[in-house]
């Protein structure tokens, strides 16, 4: 559950994971200056261990004029997040200024994640805070983790001076 400061609002959306989402309505205004505002959505969460944590968010950011937020954890720095444009629900890792991963070292205990208004027209559905830098949300839905059957053939016929090119090819067995 989020604590919302207007213009953030909770609204029904049958395509959201639980049938509702958080929205900054169009026409609510744009604030490109840190720390953003006036709208804020805050979420309290706990982590069991001291570690570096990453944030993934499922959102809709429909146009170039509706695709950025400010992100903050606890009293840390407010970071600008230019989101990838996504007219449909989309998972993305929060990036600082859109170029490198936004991550933070957290101590065990309770923390607060803040999304601060930068542009309007954005919908937020879910956020995942995780200490695995290689995690991808929803991967189990799109990647078949069943081991393949068959064999792997390694061809050693392409040798070069001081290097080895190995070609892996898969051939199924009947």
Q: How would you describe the overall organization of this protein?
A:
- By secondary structure, the protein is mainly beta.
- It is 2% helix and 50% strand.
- The chain has one helix and 17 strands.
- A hairpin with a 7-residue loop joins strand 2 (9-12) and strand 3.
- The protein starts with a strand and ends with a strand.
Short descriptors:
174 residues; 6-stranded antiparallel beta sheet; 17 strands; globular; 5-stranded antiparallel beta sheet; mainly beta
Task: Give the topology.
Blueprint: E1 3-5, E2 9-12, E3 20-23, E4 40-47, E5 51-61, E6 68-73, E7 79-82, E8 86-93, E9 95-96, E10 100-101, E11 103-106, E12 109-117, E13 123-130, H1 139-142, E14 151-155, E15 159-160, E16 163-164, E17 167-171
Antiparallel strand pairs: 1-4, 2-3, 3-13, 4-12, 5-8, 5-11, 5-13, 6-7, 6-12, 9-10, 14-17, 15-16
H/I helix tally: 1
Calculate Rg over CA atoms.
Answer: 21 Å
Helix content: under 10%
Number-wise, the strands total 17
What is the beta-strand fraction?
Answer: over 45%
Q: Structural class, from helix and strand content? A: mainly beta
User: Whole-Å distance between the termini?
Assistant: 52 Å
**Net shape:** globular
Largest sheet, in brief, is: 6 strands, antiparallel
Overall residue-averaged pLDDT value:
79
Unreliable stretches (pLDDT < 50, length at least 5) are 139-174
- SSE succession: EEEEEEEEEEEEEHEEEE
